[in-house]
Amino acid sequence: MSTNNTETTKAVVLLSGGLDSSTVLAIAKAQGYVPYLLSFRYGQRHEVELQAARAVAAQANVDQHIILDIDLRQFGGSALTSDIDVPKARSAEQMAERIPVTYVPARNTIFLSYALAWAEVLGAVDIFIGVNALDYSGYPDCRSEYIAAYQAMANLATKAGVEDAPSLTIHTPLIALTKAEIIRTGIDLGVDYALTISCYDPQPSGAACGQCDSCTLRQKGFTEAGLVDPAPYGS
Predict the structure, then answer these.
(1) Exposed, middle or buried by CB within 10 Å (0-12, 13-18, 19+), for 83?
(2) What architecture does CATH give domain 9-224?
(3) Measured between alpha carbons, how far is 47 from 53 in angstroms, rounded to an integer?
(4) Residue 75 CB: number of other CB atoms within 10 A?
(5) 181 in Cβ contact with 135 (< 8 Å)
(6) Rounded CA separation 78/136 (Å)
(7) In whole angstroms, what is the distance from residue 182 CA to residue 175 CA?
(8) Where along the chain do its domains lie?
(9) Strand partners for 36
(10) Coil, strand or helix: which one is 126?
(11) What's residue 5's pLDDT?
């Protein structure tokens, strides 16, 4: 953990506009950090999530929210960035069978690299990311081993690391929580989940499909938390 955790401590928070990252933002603020938000327009089919990210950022009243353009459609390789059907109506067992086609190759590595660069410029040594290793869809870059390895690399690759400044910490407060626990945490912190969207294949209106893996996990979390999901779902 960082040693300087005061009301003036800056942190870069990765914000997609989904349930998890919005909860992480609330956690960072509750811990006394001043969040600087970073979102990405990377050619994702669910670009509506950026509208949600803007709404979440506006409600949080943050100092700065940057949306970066990276066109990962140039590489493809994912149902989120190329013409591949998003899986629908899958069971938990089916989700756990193999890494799904919604996995975007190296996405978290790319996102964390930009967050690391901005943190260096800000003089920040804290990055928050909403990865989760329990209720997730099998992504390899959501595991604690990956985060630990990236953090070790980051502390070798930066000016601060060479100059013996405070070490960078990548905070993953959701990594060991169920989706229901994440939702309860967010509710306690005042997160307005009506502003968020988690769908991989939303309708043109912006309504969630209700059948992709992300929607399924989100709905399961709200049900287990004893709450109603306020997100709009299409018919």
Answers:
(1) exposed
(2) 3-Layer(aba) Sandwich (3.40)
(3) 10
(4) 13
(5) no
(6) 17
(7) 10
(8) 9-224
(9) 12, 64
(10) strand
(11) 46
Place of tokens 């590595």: 109
Q: Phi and psi dihedrals of 121, rounded to 5?
A: -65, -40
| Positions of the chain with pLDDT under 50 | 1-6
pLDDT at 1: 39
Q: Say what the pLDDT of residue 4 is.
A: 47
Identify the H or E element spanning 4: none
User: Burial, 232: exposed, middle or buried (Cβ in 10 Å; 0-12, 13-18, 19+)?
Assistant: middle
Residue type present at position 180 = A
How many CA atoms does the CB half-sphere of 162 hold within 13 Å?
4
The pLDDT value given to residue 35: 98
Contact 132, 142 (CB under 8 A): yes
Amino acid in position 8: T
CA angle 144, 79, 214 (to 5 degrees): 55
* Residue 211: predicted pLDDT: 96
d(CA 106, CA 148): 16
Cα–Cα distance for residue pair 147/145, rounded to 1 Å = 6
1's tokens: 């953990």
3-state secondary structure of 10: strand
User: Of 209, 229, 232, which is closest to residue 220 (Cα–Cα)?
Assistant: 229
